[in-house]
Design a protein that fits this description.
Distance between the termini: 26 Å
Strand content: 35-45%
Helix content: 10-25%
Radius of gyration: 17 Å
């Protein structure tokens, strides 16, 4: 399986330039991570709120990471709100803001807790249709003053996330490998997204 796609009623109504026949795939192996096709327990459920969502799972040793591509959204959509609505608490949230260097696009890392035996680590980033990785502050700066003058539509965006959950917090030694997995996956999916934007068939 290359992952599964599904319609989700909570998705945002946003016009997408993505081709109607667009497809996405991830390799069987990314570094030390191997893709698995088995169902995972409820604890591992990754939040997918796009109209279209595709999910993959990877394993490295005893760590399982769930990957999701969600789209389309109108503007910036903070997925931590969705996790909070499902009972998760943000124990730590780090916004790694955009720099002038395109090699260092913005993303967010979060540590989640639900109870003594439910812990999670989350990475996510948002890409717009112009190929720019954006964060919430980008939209606040670009649109705050312009709404007063004229109605400006926020751009259509696509979200990529990686989630790891378990009965104990993710050890510090495991965070870096998961972070590297996230960076490689968002590079691969961003390439596929941008190559399939254009006139719908």
């Amino acid at each position: 399986l290359q992952g599964h796609s599904e319609r989700v009623s909570l998705g945002m109504d946003a016009p997408s330039s993505l081709r109607e026949d667009a497809t996405f795939s991830l390799p069987e192996q990314i570094g030390d991570w191997h893709r698995i096709n088995s169902d995972l327990p409820q604890l591992q459920k990754i939040e997918t709120t796009g109209i279209y969502s595709q999910v993959w799972h990877y394993r490295r040793g005893g760590t399982v990471a769930s990957v999701a591509l969600d789209y389309p959204f109108r503007g910036y959509h903070d997925v931590t709100v969705c996790y909070t609505m499902q009972g998760w608490r943000m124990a730590r949230l780090e916004r790694l803001t955009k720099s002038d260097d395109k090699a260092s696009p913005p993303w967010i890392e979060a540590t989640l807790e639900r109870d003594l035996l439910s812990h999670g680590a989350l990475w996510f980033g948002t890409l717009d249709e112009r190929g720019r990785w954006v964060d919430e502050s980008d939209f606040q700066r670009r649109f705050a003053g312009r709404w007063k003058i004229q109605q400006v539509e926020e751009p259509t965006t696509y979200r990529i996330q990686v989630l790891v959950t378990g009965f104990a917090p993710l050890p510090g030694t495991e965070r870096e490998p998961v972070g590297h997995l996230f960076q490689e996956i968002r590079r691969l999916l961003a390439q596929q997204l941008l190559s399939q934007l254009g006139r719908k068939s």
